[in-house]
Amino acid sequence: MAEKQPPTPTRRGPRRKRATTLRVQATVIGTTPPLTRLLEVSSELFLNDLHEVLGWCFGWVGRAEHEFRCGTAFDADDAVRYPAAAAVARGDTALPETQVRLDEILRAPGDALFYLYDLTDLWPHHLVLDGFESRTATTPRAYCADGTRDCPADVAGGIPRYEYWSRRADPFDDDAFAAFDYLTPEDITTQSEDSEPIPFVIEEINYGLARQFGYGSDPK
Predict the structure, then answer these.
(1) What is the widest separation between alpha-carbon atoms in the chain?
(2) What single DSSP character describes residue 196?
(3) Alpha-carbon separation of residue 182 from 30, 51, 84, 126, 153 (angstroms)
(4) Residue 28: enclosing H or E segment and its boundaries?
(5) Which of 70, 97, 99, 145 could form an SS bridge with 113, CB 3.0 to 4.6 Å?
(6) Is residue 126 within 8 Å of 37, Cβ to Cβ?
(7) Segment (H or E) for 114
(8) Which of 9, 166, 10, 209 is nearest to 94 (CA)?
(9) Residue 157 phi/psi, 5° resolution?
């Protein structure tokens, strides 16, 4: 399912004694052109916090389950799983995302992990640490610095439906009928305007992130 990536560390390291800002490039695997967001997040956040950040930045509203994994690919044999609360409640014994801090996994530029949103429609994300920045009392704990393409509508259909509606809504696409190549007959008969992409408005995203996560160091 997920395309192969260069090997990445799967062993968790020690937590930082002093918080720093992690610059993380998040890319949805399988979209053309790429659907990306550049995140700046406090190293003190946990994976469940990162799930919330990704929700704000990509438009996920939490209607579906998710999971983090660290390895050469999301479905690789060497991947270490970090399940969400719903899976843990069902008896999953893997280390939950609520116990894993970002600085335990993203420790050096190039370190990476995978995030899958929606276990049915499959939205795989590849997250790579680009670098670090210092923090002050006024630094947001979660911030979207940049991004490409509009946010997918968080409805059933996955990447094919997103690509279909992106092309149909593009006034400069002179071959919009080619968008049907992304869909199955079932997709076409069940399509609705609810599937249209949501504009990527970075100011609104960062307003929401600031209200949820605040500024400075982790208050906990």
Answers:
(1) 55
(2) S
(3) 12, 27, 30, 22, 16
(4) strand 21-28
(5) 70
(6) no
(7) strand 112-117
(8) 10
(9) 135, -30
Q: Which two tokens stand for residue 220?
A: 């906990």
How many other CB atoms are there within 10 angstroms of residue 133's CB atom?
A: 11
Distance (Å, rounded) from C-alpha 40 to C-alpha 34? 19
- The rounded Cα 16 to chain-centroid distance in angstroms is 23
* Token reading at 26: 């998040």
Neighbouring C-beta atoms of residue 50, cutoff 10 Å:
26
List the structure tokens of 153: 């509508």
Residue keyed to tokens 């050469």:
72
Helix axes 47-58, 202-213, angle to 10 degrees: 150
Tokens 């995978």: give the residue: 114
Task: Tell me which amino acid residue 89 is.
Answer: A
pLDDT tens per residue, range 142-181:
999 999 999 999 988 889 888 888 877 665 665 655 555 6
Secondary element (H or E) of residue 35: strand 35-42
What is the number of other CB atoms lying within 10 angstroms of the CB of residue 109?
12
Six-digit token string for 155: 């409805």
Nearest to 216, CA basis, from 45, 38, 65, 16: 45
Positions in the chain short of pLDDT 50: 1-3, 5-10, 220
The pLDDT value given to residue 216 = 87
3-state secondary structure labels for all residues of 81-109 = EEECHHHHHCCCCCCCHHHCEHHHHCCCC
